[in-house]
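Late entry, evening session. Most of the bench is empty. Finally got around to the prediction I had been postponing all week. Sequence below, unchanged from the version circulated by S.P.
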Amino acid sequence: ILLLFFFSFIIASATEPSVQIAKVLTLNGEVLYRDSGSFYWEEVHADTTFTDYDEIETDHGAFCEIQFTEGHIIRVEQKSKLVLRGQQKGSHKGMLKQLKISVGKVWIKLVKGTDEKEQLLIETPFVSVSQRDTLFSVSAPAGKISAYRGNLEVMSGRKKIVIAEGFESEVNGDGTLQESQPLSAESLESFAEFAKKSSLRSGLLDDLLSRLRSRKYVATGKVISENVEEEPKKGLFRQLLNHLGFKPSTSHVKSGDSIP
């Protein structure tokens, strides 16, 4: 009887219509996926679509961009592995979308105006990120969470921080979430490489990169100015900063502060 019930369940599950939650935009190299009802990995093609609980894995040197039905765009970098979720929320028409990243790095562009019931939740073994109208990158299980457009709300255990646009935080190997800092030169360069290959509008990404680099330059100038104010011999340094167009700041640039 139990065996009969088991096979009946398998047959019923196989006949249930699968709801598409995402599709492929671009891909390069060997990208594999495993359907939620299969034990086998298959190669991802340009016309591949994804449903609830599908897994995606990218090989060395490979990448894949997928788009959720709401318009959210995910770029999966090389040597990454993740699971897509699309859970129906009760009697509501909306569907909770989740992206569970076990290892690797992904870029996420969330669209503006998505219904509250159709949010995309990003999860790694240590943190979760949920926000709309943003562009950011996440590394797992540890690594940087970088906000390139919009502010991010990040939860790690009971700790919650806001990573402002132009800032990033790092998750240590033990899951500790550090306070955010301005985007590093390495992160800006990484974004520049992402912009070259992304299917997103290049003009938008180029303008955003220029703005972020400008903010990084201004932030650096403010920090230098504050340090100079604390030096007893500041005249020469003040003249240099004035010549460069930096004005002394009376307040420190703190984690999460907005930069004009």
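Two things to note before I forget:
The longest helix spans residues 202-229.
The longest strand covers residues 95-109.
Will write this up properly tomorrow.
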